[in-house]
Amino acid sequence: xxxKRRVCIIGLGYIGLPTAALLANRGYQVHGVDINQQVIDTIxxxxxxxxxxxxxxxxxxxxxxxxxxASNNPAESDIFLIAVPTPFHNNTSNNLxxxxxxxxxxxxxxxxxxxxxxxxxxxxxxxxxxxxxxxxMMFDILKKEGVDMENVYIAHSPERVLPGNIMHELxxxxxxxxxxxxxxxxxxxxxxxxxxxxxxxxxxxxxxEMTKLxxxxxxxxxxxxxxxLSILCHDLxxxxxxxxxxxxxxxxxNILSPGCGVGGHCIAVDPWFIVHSADGKAxxxxxxxxxxxxxxxxVIDRVKEQIIKYEKDxxxxxxxxxxxxxxxxxxxxxxxxxxxxxxxxxxxSYNIVAVEPNIREHSFLKIVPYLEGLKxxxxxxxxxxxxxxxxxxxxxxxxxxxxxxxx
Length: 407
Known about the structure:
Distance between the termini: 64 Å
CATH topology of the largest domain: Rossmann fold
Strand order of the largest sheet: 3-2-1-4-5-6-7-8
Number of domains: 2
Helix content: 40-55%
Strand content: 5-15%
Shape: globular
Radius of gyration: 23 Å
Oligomer: single chain
Order of helices and strands: EHEHHEEHEHEHEHEHHHHEHEHEHEE
CATH class of the largest domain: Alpha Beta
Number of strands: 13
CATH architecture of the largest domain: 3-Layer(aba) Sandwich
Low-confidence stretches: 392-407
Largest sheet: 8 strands, mixed
CATH superfamily of the largest domain: NAD(P)-binding Rossmann-like Domain
């Protein structure tokens, strides 16, 4: 029976906080660590700083019962779980001539930060999506920091949850666990089986790392196919949505719906990790990623065409509302969001307001209520938030790229 009950979680963001709250509600004594003091203070009040269904009640209950505490620094624990961002060194994913380089500095810093607290028998878990070899690197870092690694177990278990349904999927989804050795794999798997109802699948650390990258690259390639179809159909004067609907009547065809790009810290990022380490061999994966990044620029060009037409007809520039900024419906997550990229680039030249029902303000975009946004001359529907689906305003599809305009 698994009897380690103290967990220290590094990173209290979109994965770390839900995981911390879930474990705390399962009886684990959870010590959460974050570098943002406002995040720490918010959690210790039993409140949340991100939008995620059911999360707040989990946090409230855990804090109230004193099973969850947030701090700036780690504490001695049985289990250390790292859930920090893994961005790019330079955010050049939209640059068609370069490949972004994965930045694992946060993982390195977190590993060094927990080193003084690690004792014999501890389990160290990495949940951050990472390039192949990162988990092995953590072993080397801890050893270099002076940790006796003889009875320290290290494993990788990539998160595989959908924002908007995280609290359910943390429990229900199958989990992949890969250690740096067999004992590490077994210890990690035993831990996850205490709260995961899906199957816990055991493998090596390198395979676990590559599995997450593979899953999201597969999805990226399929989305790129749909986005490329929408571009081709625009040139051929074909309704792409009708075309896809008809093609999907084939029993073995299931084409996705096109959109304005791909966002989030998974599908829009993970394929580059493979490309970066593939020595030019990941040609299909790379081209899919570039196709989805290009879709943002393509959409902006179509919007500018409409602006020019409006200006010619009305003899003035139109007011423009970008409907939605998040990378997917019904969440507040703006990471790698193509909708945000589109609004930002248009904002450089035009009078833009943004409607994003899941955030209160933005650093440089003016956020307005939905009804006020509807007063704009052109409404660009970028994200299919539920708040937009009951809209009775007549819309017309333009270019079949997932964006709708009210004229």
